[in-house]
C-alpha cells in the first residue's frame, strides 16, 4: 500500500471519528429542565395566541378574523404550579363550571377525556381518548392533578337499566407543559411535548 492511500485512509478515519464524536456530544447533552420549562411556556403562549375555542363545534381551531384568541379569552385561567423545584404555568379553559363536588388531590374522579399533542405551537394528533374512566388524582400527571381540581362534578341522572348519564358536569380544556405531563422520560414517545386535553368531570369519589 503506497503512502497516498495511507494518508487517504487516515483522513477518512479522522472524519468519521469527528462525526461520531459530535453525534455523541449532542446525544448526551445534559437535559436542562428549567430551560425546557421556559421553552414549553413560550410554545403554549404562542399556541394560545393563535387559536380560539369554537363554541358551536366545541373544538379548538386556528384563529380566525373576528374571533378571540384563547390567550385573551376571559375563560382562560393561568395557574401557577410548583413542581420538581420549578415553577410552571398550567392553562385551564373552563366552558362549564360543574355543579356538585370539587375534587382534591387524594380523591378519585370519573372523567371523559381526549388528549392531543401540541407540536411546535400547532395542534397535533390524538394520542389518548376514553369515556367513563376512573382515576386517582394522585396517580396521574401533575397537569391533571392541578387542572381537574379546578372543576366540579355533575349530577348522576342515570335511570335503571339505562346507560350512565350525567348532567351539569364540569367541562373544559387543559393546556399542559411537558414538565407537568410526561416530562423528559416516557415510554409513550412524547418526550418534552406539551399537551391539550378536552375533559369532562362527571363524578368524584371523596377519599376519607
Helix and strand succession?
HHEEEEEEHEEEE
CATH topology of the largest domain: Chitinase A, domain 3
Number of helical segments? 3
Basic shape = globular
Q: Give the overall average pLDDT.
A: 88
- CATH C-level class of the largest domain is Alpha Beta
**Separation of termini?**
83 Å
Query: Helix amount, in percent?
Result: 10-25%
Strand content: 35-45%
Largest sheet: 6 strands, antiparallel
- The main sheet orders its strands as 3-4-9-10-5-6
What is Rg? Answer: 23 Å
Task: Give an overview of the whole structure.
The protein starts with a helix and ends with a strand. The radius of gyration is 23 Å and the shape is globular. It is of the alpha+beta class and 208 residues long. The model has no long low-confidence stretch (mean pLDDT 88). The longest helix has 25 residues, at 3-27. Helices cover 24% and strands 37% of the residues. A six-stranded antiparallel sheet has the order 3-4-9-10-5-6. It folds into two domains: 1-29; 31-205, Roll (Chitinase A, domain 3), CATH 3.10.50.40. Strand 3 and strand 4 form a beta hairpin. It is built from three helices and ten strands, in the order ααββββββαββββ.
Amino acid at each position: 500500500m503506497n503512502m497516498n492511500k495511507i494518508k487517504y485512509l487516515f483522513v477518512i478515519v479522522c472524519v468519521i471519528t469527528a462525526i461520531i464524536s459530535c453525534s455523541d456530544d449532542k446525544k448526551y447533552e445534559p437535559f436542562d429542565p428549567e430551560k425546557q420549562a421556559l421553552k414549553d411556556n413560550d410554545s403554549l403562549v404562542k399556541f394560545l395566541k393563535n387559536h380560539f375555542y369554537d363554541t358551536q363545534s366545541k373544538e379548538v381551531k386556528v384563529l380566525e378574523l373576528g374571533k378571540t384568541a384563547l390567550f385573551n379569552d376571559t375563560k382562560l385561567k393561568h395557574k401557577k404550579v410548583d413542581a420538581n423545584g420549578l415553577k410552571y404555568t398550567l392553562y385551564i379553559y373552563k366552558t362549564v363550571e360543574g355543579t356538585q363536588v370539587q375534587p382534591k388531590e387524594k380523591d378519585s374522579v370519573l372523567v371523559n377525556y381526549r388528549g392531543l399533542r401540541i407540536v411546535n405551537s400547532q395542534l397535533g394528533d390524538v394520542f389518548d381518548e376514553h369515556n367513563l374512566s376512573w382515576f386517582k388524582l394522585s396517580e396521574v400527571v401533575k397537569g391533571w392533578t392541578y387542572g381537574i381540581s379546578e372543576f366540579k362534578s355533575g349530577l348522576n341522572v342515570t335511570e335503571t337499566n339505562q346507560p350512565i348519564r350525567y348532567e351539569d358536569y364540569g367541562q373544559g380544556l387543559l393546556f399542559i407543559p411537558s414538565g407537568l405531563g410526561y416530562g423528559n422520560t416516557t415510554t409513550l414517545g412524547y418526550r418534552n411535548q406539551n399537551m391539550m386535553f378536552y375533559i369532562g368531570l362527571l363524578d368524584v369519589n371523596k377519599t376519607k
